[in-house]
Amino acid sequence: MKKFVVLDVSSILYRAFFALPPFKTKDNKPTGGLYGFLSILLKIIREIKPDCILATFDRPEPTFRHKIEVEYKANRPEAPNDLVLQIGYVKEIFQSLNIPYLEKSGFEADDIIGFLISKITDKKLGQVIIVTGDSDTFQLLKEGVSVYLLRKGVKDIQIYDINKFKEDYGGIEPEQLVDVKSLAGEPTDNIKGIEGIGNKTAIKLIKEYSSVEKLIENANLLPDNLKEKIIKNKDLILKNKELIKLKKDIEGINFDIENCFFSLPSPDSVQNIFSKFEFKTLFERYKKIQQEQSKRTLF
Length: 299
Hints:
CATH superfamily of the largest domain: 5'-nuclease
Number of helices: 13
CATH topology of the largest domain: Rossmann fold
Structural class: alpha/beta
Number of strands: 8
Oligomer: single chain
Distance between the termini: 18 Å
Strand order of the largest sheet: 3-2-1-4-5-6
CATH architecture of the largest domain: 3-Layer(aba) Sandwich
Shape: elongated
CATH class of the largest domain: Alpha Beta
Radius of gyration: 21 Å
Strand content: 5-15%
C-alpha cells in the first residue's frame, strides 16, 4: 500500500523555531527552526519510508474564518521576522528535494490537509500520515489515516490512530472533536467556549447527543443549568463549529495525487543547499538515508 506523508509545515516549523537555539550562519541567516524542521523531515523519511511527501503552508492573509469571526486567532503575537525568513528557506529545501508544497489564500494548511486526505482516501490510493504540531487535525483521523503529533520540541512525537484518539478523548469519534470544541472552545485560536462547559462535560454531552445540532434540538431534555446555557449560546456554538471544522472542498488546487512519487535526490545534487545553511551534520545524515533508500530500490 502506498504511503503518503502530509506535512503541516507552519506548525512544525513554529515548534522547531521556539524549541531550538537561534542558530545563524556565518552571513547571519537564521537557521534554528530550519535545522529542527529538517531534522524531523529526515527522521520521517528514514522511519516511515514514504512513497509520496506533500507539504502544506499557512498563508499570511486572513482566511474565510476571519470573515465569520474577526477575533479569530487575534490572541496570537505576530511571527518574528527570523521565523518568517525561514519559511522561505524551507521552500528552498523542498525545491531541492523535489517535494511539492501547497498553499491557498483564504485557507489554512489544515484545510488543505483535509482536502488532500479526502482525495487520497476517496480514491483509495493508500495510507496517510499527517505530521503536525496541531491537534486540530485529529478530526481527520479514520481508517488509513494517522497523525504524528509533535508535543514538545522536536523529539517528543505521539502517534495517533483512531483507537489512540478514542482512548484519550473519552470514546468519541474523531469527527466529533469539532462538536466538543464547539462547546468547550479552543483558546489557542481565540475561540470562546460556553462558560462552565469544559472538555469533560462537552465530551459527555456529545457522546449522548452525537452532535451540537442534536444537542441544541434536544436542549429541553437537559438539566436546567445546562439547558439555559445551550439555548442562550446556540448561535455561538454553531459559529464555533464553522470555525473549527476543516474545509475540504477547496477550489483551485490542482495536483496529480495519483502520480505523486518521492525519492531522495543524490547527495551531489543537494549538497549546495545544505552548504548554504551550513548543515554539515544533517548532510551526513542525509547521505546515509539516501544510500539506504537506494539499496532498497535496487533489491
